[in-house]
Amino acid sequence: MRFNPMTTRPKPPARPRNIANDIVDLVEAATSNWTRQKKSEERHPGMVRYRYSRMTKQPRTTQKDAAWQVMGQAYMAASNNDTLPAMARQIFYQARPKIMQLTDDKELKYGYFISGSASRLHRRTSRELECGL
Amino acid sequence: MEAGGNAETFKYQQRKGMTDDGIPYIVEFAFGLHQLGLTQEAKVARKFITGANWSAGINNPFRAFGSTGEGLENTLAKVRANAGQPVICALHLASAYVQYADRGKSSIILTNDAVQPDDD
User: Which residues on B lie below 8 Å from A55 (Cβ)?
Assistant: First the structure.
């Protein structure tokens, strides 16, 4: 099948398993970041200045991950241990400092909190509390 | 790290399998960047250690894969880890049965062909 440059390149079929192919697979997997970086440097020599940041990128805690951790606690605090109805904004005020603390003080906006994953988390947490989990 | 590698760039991969004859094997590969290679365009040569069954080879024993004749050097060149790059890598093969091409155990016979990475 002809490769269409407007679409993504089709994934090559997996190599058959044997020692030689396993060695090639391992080398490819372990050097993937380096290979990507070097190829970008070949295309644009100025990309060498991003080498350090790209090669040493540390996995960070996302706001979504942090929200998963603190949402139950925030809901309980906002609802006075599930005795009162809790509004999304009340939960937001409880959760925001904790989420920001976990995400290197990255600002958490109410719009993102209410529209995105956080509202789903809130719904799930409420459901879990209703079920007595 | 003793060789000057950067710990944050270190990567380890391992693959376990069985040969067609039912002999188990483990292949391990470790890769990292030299500290100087991260901070500047320094001329640091590649450090490359290979071995089989817990014994380091004097030369690269993975010189040829199967009938294609292309070996590990070719693979490393395709992933931009050739001799001039500031990288440190180590490859280890552990298997109950390793066939050598010579009495000095300087070259391992790998009968299977390998599909090399794309060049682009």
Answer: 6, 8-9, 33, 38
Mutate to test the interface with A, among B6, B68, B75 (most CBs of A within 10 A): B75
Nearest chain B residue to A38 by CA: give it.
Answer: B80
How far apart are alpha carbons B8 and B85 in whole angstroms? 18
Give B21-51 pLDDT, tens digit per residue: 889 999 999 999 988 888 766 678 888 899 9
Contact in structure between B119 and B69 (CB atoms under 8 Å): no
Closest CA to A34 of B31, B45, B72: B31
- This model of the complex carries an ipTM of 0.88
DSSP 8-state assignment for residue B9: G
What b/e string do you get for B75-102 counting C-beta neighbours within 10 Å, with b at 16 or more? bbbbbbbeeebbbbbbbbbebeebeeee
Q: How far off is chain A from B74, nearest CA to CA, in Å?
A: 10
pTM for this structure?
0.66
